[in-house]
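#dry-run=false #mode=assembly
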Amino acid sequence: MASPEILAIEQLSLHFGGLTVLDQISLSVRPGELLALIGPNGAGKTSVLNCISGLYRPSQGRILYEGAEITGLAPHRAAEIGIARTFQHGGLFPQLTVRENLLVGRHCHIRSNAFLDGLFLGPAKRMEIAERALVEEVIEFVELERYRNQRIAGLPFGLQKVVGFARALAMAPKLMLLDEPSAGLNREEKENLARFILRIKHEKNLPMIWVEHDMQMVADLADRIYVLDYGGYITDGAPEDVLSDPKVIEIYLGRQGKAN
Amino acid sequence: MAQASGYFKTSYGQELRLIETTTQKVALAAFVVVLLVYPFFAKPFFLDLANQVFLAVIAASALMLLTGFAGQISLGHAGLLAAGAFTTGILYKEVGAPFWVTLPASAVVGALLGLVFGLPSLRLKGLYLAVTTLALHFIVAYAGGEYETKRGYSTGVSVSPPSLFGFELTQGRHWYFVLLAFDVLVVLFCLNLVRSRTGRSFIAIRDHDTVAEALGIPVKRTKLLAFVISSVLTTLTGSLLAYYQGFVTIQAFTIYLTIEYVAMVIIGGSGSMLGAILGAVFVVLFPHVIEAAIRLVPASRHLVNDAFAINFAAFGLIMVLFLIFEPLGLVGIWRRLRDYFLLWPFRQTAVGKGG
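#status=ok
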C-alpha cells in the first residue's frame, strides 16, 4: 500500500481504568515533517508518544507505520523497525559514559550474540570497533566531544538532555519522537537544540513528532502544530494559524471574563 | 628516546583493550609469575586455600553478572552450586560417568534451572524476586537430601578424582593449575561480555528497563539470558567443587553459603569484575584471618571454642561497615588508592568523587 504518510494514527483512544487519557485521536506525519504536539499539562501528549513506541497499549484505534499496522507492538520491536524516542527526564544510564549510552542505542544494529561477545571474536570485535566510529559521528554532530568518556552521573542536566537526543539519533531511526527535549534547558542550550533539530530535518529529512512547551521554539521551527487538550483533538495546521486560533489561546490563557 | 607526554588512544580498537598501559602489562605479568610459582612453595594448607579462592572466583563472577550487572537479585546461588555438585555426584555414582560427561551435564542442568527460575524475574523485582529464587535453593536442597537418604549415602556421595587425558587429578598442585585455567577463561569471558553489546544490555535493564526496551533491547529475553549464563557458570563451579572435595553432601550447601556469595558481590564492589575477584578472595580468607587473629590474643585458649561465633559476628560487622562506609566495595578502595598514587604529589579532593 502506497502511503504518503510515514505514520498515521486513526481514532486512537487510551483509557486507564475509568480515566480517558486519549479520546479518538487521529494524526499523521508526512515524510520529513516536523510535527509539534502541544497542549497544557496532562493533555496526553506523552501518552501519544508512548502508544506509538509501544510502551502503552491503546484501548481502541490503529497506528499505521509506513502503511503497516503496528498497534500494540512491543517497544523493542518498534525500536527495531526504526522508531526512536527521547525521554522527558533524559532516561539515561547513569553509570555508563556518554559514548556507552549511545552504543546502547546501537543495540539493534549490532549483529552479535552473548557467546561471540564472551569470546570477543570475529563479528563481535569487528562490530564493536565499527560501531564506535559510527557513534563518534553522532557525538560530533551534537558537539559532545569533550564529554564522550564521562559518566552521565556527573553531567549537568542540560547536557544529559542532549545525550538523550544523541542516543535516539544514534539509533539511525526513520521516525523520531521527541518528548519535551527543551524542558530544563537554558537559553543557550535551547538554541543549540534548535540548531540540531533543524540540521537533522534538513540533512537527514527525518520526520519527527515533537512534544514541546516552549511556544517560541514551536512557532519558529515546526512545520505543523497539533493541539491536544484533555486527551481530545483541538486543532492542527500551520504554526501562525494555530497559535492565533482563539480556541488555542483560550486553552493556554483562559476565557476572557464577561465583566470586561 | 622519545618520551610520551601522556597516554593517548589513537584507534577505537585501542579503546577496547583490557590491558591499556605498559605498567599494567608489567604488573599483570608479575602477578602471573607469582601465581605460577606459588604452588611450588606453598604448604598444602595454603594450596587448599588458593584452590578454594579459585572456585569462589568462578561462582562470584557468575553472581556478579546476574546481580552486579543485570541487577537481578538471586538467593539461589548455594542451590545452584548444589545442583551442579549433585548432577556430578549422581552421574558418577549411578552410571560411572567421566569428567567430560558430568561437567557439560552440570552446565545443562544449570541452563535449565536458570531458565525456569529466571521466569519470575519477568514479572517480579527486588525482594519479591529474591524470595522466588530462594525457592530454588529449597527445592534443590530437598531433592539432594532425598537422593542421599533413598540411596543410603547419608554421609555424602563420594566422587573419585577425575582424570584429564589419562592424568589423574589427585594432588592439590594439579588442581591448582586446572582451577587457575578455569578462572582465567571464566574471568576473560565475563570481561568480554561486560565490554560488549551483551554487557551493555545487562546494565541497561538494571538501570532503566522501560528505556532499555524503547531502545530495542528485548528486556525479558535479556533477563533470562543473564539468569542462564550465571546459572551455567555456577553449576560448573558446583561440579568442580564435587571433584575437588571428593564428596558431595547437601549439608555443605546452606543458605549461609548464599549469603557469603552475596557478600562477595557487595564487599568486592557491585558492577565490577575485579570486585567479584577481590570479594571472593576476601570472603574465603576472612575466617582464617580472624582465626589467626584470635590466636594472637593472649589467653586465647578460652576463645578457641567461640571462634565460630566470633567469625559470624565479625563477618556481619564487616558487611554492615562496607554497606555504610564503602558502597563501592574493595574496588572503590582500590580505585581511590590508585588515583592517589597516580596523582601524587597532588592532593585529590572530594570533587569528582562520583567516578
